[in-house]
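seq:
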Amino acid sequence: MWLAPLITIHRDDGRLPSPRATLRGRAGPRVKNSGVKTVSNVAELRTLFDHWTTGAQKLPPRGDKIPDVFKLQDGATIQWRQTSKTSGETIDIATADDKRLKVHIDG
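struct:
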């Protein structure tokens, strides 16, 4: 399983985890259920997104609700979705081998 039952947003050294580490469950936001992790607020969510997309290739928006889309060096795609059915802003991650992860605000 690529998600751990409970993990925290910051590593012990204070740095943010990579998206791949989050997918493996070694570091990152709390797990809500399989494939979905949560953070406490939009600032925390945006901090993760900005960290993960630093140096990534910017792709065209996918409509009004998905303005920010990036391709990471490992082939993963990460996008910022402004709305979701359950909790507002969401980060969607799809790995090169099509594993999916969502990170959203706990609500």
